[in-house]
Amino acid sequence: MTNILKHFKLNNRIFQKKTVFIILILLFTHVLPSFAFEPVDHLQVHGFISQGYIITSDNKFCGNSDNNGSFDFREIGLNASYRPIPSLQISAQALSRFAGENDDGSIRLDYGFMDYSVMDNDSCQWGVRLGRVKTPFGLYNETRDVAVTRPSVFLPQSIYFDRTRDLALSGDGLYLYGEYRTDLGNLFLKLGSGKPRVKDREVENSLLGRNFPGNLDGNISYNGQLLYEKDGGLIRLAFTWAQLNMDYDSSALPPFDIDSGSIKFEPYVFSAQINEERWSLTGEYALRRLKYDDFSYPGIINRVIKGESCYIQGTYNFFEDWQGFVRYDILYSNKDDRNGKKAERPGHPAHSFFAKDLTFGLRWNITESHMLRGEYHYVNGTAWLTSEDNTDRSKTKPYWNMFSILIAYYF
Hints:
By secondary structure, the protein is mostly beta strands. The protein has helices at residues 2-8, 12-28, 165-169, 201-208, and strands at residues 43-56, 70-85, 88-99, 104-120, 124-134, 170-182, 185-196, 215-218, 221-230, 235-249, 261-275, 279-293, 303-317, 322-332, 354-365, 370-381, 399-410. It is built from four helices and 17 strands. Strand 11 and strand 12 form a beta hairpin.
């Protein structure tokens, strides 16, 4: 194998891509559907795989999308849950995700926790989860890795940043949940405390402007969500709050590094959704408070930045297996500097601090296990582009177009 790799001059990244494409071919030729997962004492196994293609008129998203397009967007996941006793469930999911330079496809533990039900009767349910748990954030965060659960190829970036997804995706800690059922609707409460996942280059890029020699670490953080649901999801209203605490530890003295400091990120998200038989309407609005303490480095001096974002989205089922959608998505890194002129500096043009995205898309449910989706974006601004793909942000263009197509299989 070594000689073959040397002969074709393949690096490790390309070799990983070839391997994934082989798996995709096997999946879509029905190898997995023919494999039967026999239940063993309440054991359930599920999985998914998706492959996307993205092409942009300018700028890069999930790889070199501005040339001939990029296939560097795919997600592969395998999850299992086991219930040894009625009140205890153990769940875990392994995930491999490619997303250009921002995600290299390495296998990681997406979530893994023990769920103990303290009370469960006709009117209410209460329980506790311990381990790595998906963060309840907005309407889509807990299932965002599974392509068929998303309303589009990419979630609205004003709320669900793919640029810093690990920061909000899950945390390691203790989480309480409850459900209270009434004739007027059901209430769901989720409260958690744990450490956020911040070991990602793009998280540091986003929070500090670039990567520095020191270490960014997560501290004990908190989050909570209250959700109201009526008539099995006809109406859904939610409020989400989180406080993510992080410390930056310097590894050298200035000018080789910045001084140590702390960062507190507090988002507040208001969500609303109406689901009728043929159509649905969804809107979410977020206020974000980003506070820096103990820093003195130019550009990262102690300050508070208040961001704002929102989207509104409508979907319509044309036929049983076809669905269309339209969405308008707005993101301001600083709501008091909506055009980015105050924050503009060398290497960071004004348009890198906001984004306005008009999106149209179609979804086709080919079979019960296969889905095909395509969408078009017209974007003004580059706030949600990654620095990993766009290393020189001064060369990014404020107005750009993006087309993406994605095929997914799930079992």
